[in-house]
Design the sequence.
């Protein structure tokens, strides 16, 4: 099975090779033996992740995410696993492709609601918490999350986090995450979602699976495994998503017309 892993921004491998290696290391720990994973960035996306704090830039960048994701099917991939907790472009791309397109945020919240009573999310940037909480509520998970600040952030600055990623010194990241997680547990969380693709692989390869009995969910792994699962269902001929209502699927002729008019590929 071939999985297309979609990063949220422009992250050329020649610059961010150590992060690609980190994410691949986490994937290798849990992927099915026959699964092949290719990590893709957004060539024309934003470079500074801090710009995702602005709704305008985030939505423009999301359009570039969609342009990247919709190449997966014609390039022979069996499923797409999102690699950003914003679930950038996931819903839109899913309506344009036949193969499964999985968002790490949504699948992680489903898992957390099954694994415990109340979950909390810890991301890497304070200015992202409002949008992530909005997504949590809009996805119908407000009752499954703690009521007080269900989405929180690390205290370290983003540039310090990137320094840790590039140097391989993960201890400051883990210490910061654990401290914030303890506050979540004090506010009745019993499951913790590591809500950032920069942070969660660090915890996974460090074997940090629980804090005081509360499981830690890595959304990148959750997205991968659910993509594998839906990919198998799709190959077996079972339906993997609705084709009516809010996310109705257009006939191939109409999809081709729209993609051609937007100078994208033809189905």
Sequence:
């Amino acid at each position: 099975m071939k999985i297309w892993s979609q990063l949220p921004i422009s992250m050329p491998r020649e610059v961010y090779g150590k992060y690609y290696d980190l994410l691949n290391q986490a994937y290798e720990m849990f992927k099915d033996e026959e699964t092949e994973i290719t990590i893709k960035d957004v060539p024309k996306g934003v470079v500074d992740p801090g710009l995702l704090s602005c709704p305008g830039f985030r939505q423009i960048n999301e359009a570039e995410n969609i342009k990247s994701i919709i190449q997966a099917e014609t390039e022979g991939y069996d499923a797409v696993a999102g690699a950003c907790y914003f679930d950038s472009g996931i819903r839109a791309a899913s309506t344009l492709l036949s193969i499964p397109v999985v968002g790490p945020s949504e699948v992680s919240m489903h898992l957390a609601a099954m694994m415990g009573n109340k979950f909390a999310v810890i991301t890497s940037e304070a200015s992202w918490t409002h949008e992530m909480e909005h997504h949590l509520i809009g996805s119908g998970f407000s009752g499954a999350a703690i009521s007080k600040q269900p989405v929180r952030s690390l205290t370290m600055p983003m540039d310090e986090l990137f320094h840790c990623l590039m140097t391989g010194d993960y201890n400051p990241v883990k210490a910061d995450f654990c401290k914030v997680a303890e506050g979540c547990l004090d506010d009745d969380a019993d499951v913790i979602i590591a809500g950032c693709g920069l942070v969660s692989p660090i915890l996974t390869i460090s074997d940090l699976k629980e804090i005081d009995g509360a499981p830690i969910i890595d959304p990148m792994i959750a997205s991968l495994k659910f993509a594998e699962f839906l990919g198998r269902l799709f190959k077996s001929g079972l339906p993997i998503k609705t084709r009516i209502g809010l996310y109705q699927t257009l006939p191939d002729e109409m999809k081709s017309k729209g993609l051609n008019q937007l100078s994208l590929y033809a189905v």
Observations:
- DSSP finds ten helices and nine strands in the chain.
- The chain has a mean pLDDT of 95.
- The chain has two domains: 2-104+221-261, 108-218.
